[in-house]
Amino acid sequence: MNVTIIGCGDVGTRCATLLQAAGHQVVGVRRQVAGLPSWLSAVAADVLDPASLGFLRSQNQPADMVIYSLAASGFTEQAYHDAYVGGVNNVLEALRGCPPKCMIFVSSTGVYHQNDGSVIDEHSPTEPTRFNGQMVLRGEQKVRDSGFGCCVRFSGIYGPDRLRMINRVAAGQATLDAAPPYTNRIHIEDCAAVLAHLVEMIHRGEAVKPVYIASDNLPATSVEVESYIATMLGLSLENSEPVARTKRIAGSKRCSNQRLLDTGYVFKYPDYKAGYQQVISSMKAQARGEQS
């Protein structure tokens, strides 16, 4: 199949690698294409510039699949509106008259508002109170209303270049909350593989649901995750100074991935322990290499 990945950053490039290896033709789309690997066909375009999206209609081989994997340029309401509302509008308009078999919209579990540690799934209410969740949810609705959309709600993504929690623990900071919130994680390699898995399902003619939660198999409290990271780093949370308590941006919930598992997807990193072990082991190996 011909697959176009709009917003081809880290997740998109990893996904393109998997898809190309499986025999699909992949085009990566981003504003600056210099950072894309040389083997990947690339198109320079800006979702906020409708004229630059004309290639979606003029391609000799129109896309069978479109993956919309854009990230907001900053944590502001305008940036989120641009990425998830304005950009989606422009892409859908460019696809008018030549719709793909499916458009996969990369969404977020930030569309959920639950903050009580409850288990949530694709049927749970989505009433986000913050602008980021609201804008992502608006984008979801537009894609689903198109009649050919599928939305994948990723939880907290981590990996070799996403080290926020590791860096916090290494800096001697931790949640240290008497009632720590639940956190949901997914390794970036699984993010790419989930998208490729859905593409393969559609290629085989299998039906996909309109929404999937993509999170690993083990929701855990922030303290549990931080404690494991500290152990892997040879540190102790007892020496940490608790960070100032602020309103929980991500809430506290336990994401169920059962619908995704039911499709036959098998996680490469099924829980935070497997994932962070890989990331931290790679960091240590790299450090040893630089010192030798």
Mean pLDDT: 92
Strand order of the largest sheet: 3-2-1-4-5-7-12
Could you tell me how far the N terminus lies from the C terminus, measured between alpha carbons in angstroms? 45 Å
Beta-strand residue percentage: 15-25%
CATH third-tier fold name: Rossmann fold
SSE-based structural type: alpha/beta
Count the helices. How many?
9
H-E order: EHEEHEHEEHEEHEEEHEEHEEHH
Oligomer: single chain
- Sequence stretches where pLDDT stays below 50 over 5 or more residues: 244-248
Task: Specify the CATH homologous superfamily.
Answer: NAD(P)-binding Rossmann-like Domain
In the CATH scheme, the class would be: Alpha Beta
Tell me the number of structural domains. Answer: 1
Question: Biggest β-sheet, characterized?
Answer: 7 strands, parallel
* Beta strands, count: 15
Please identify, by name, the CATH architecture: 3-Layer(aba) Sandwich
Question: What is the C-alpha radius of gyration, as a whole number of Å?
Answer: 19 Å
Describe the structure.
- This protein has 292 residues and is an alpha/beta fold.
- The chain has a single domain, classed as 3-Layer(aba) Sandwich (Rossmann fold).
- Helices cover 37% and strands 19% of the residues.
- It is built from 9 helices and 15 strands.
- The protein has a 7-stranded parallel β-sheet, with helices on both faces. Strands 6-15 form a two-stranded parallel ribbon. A two-stranded parallel ribbon has the order 8-11.
- Helix 1 links the parallel strand 1 and strand 2 (25-30).
- Helix 1 crosses helix 6 (188-203) and helix 3 runs parallel beside helix 4.
- It starts with a strand and ends with a helix.
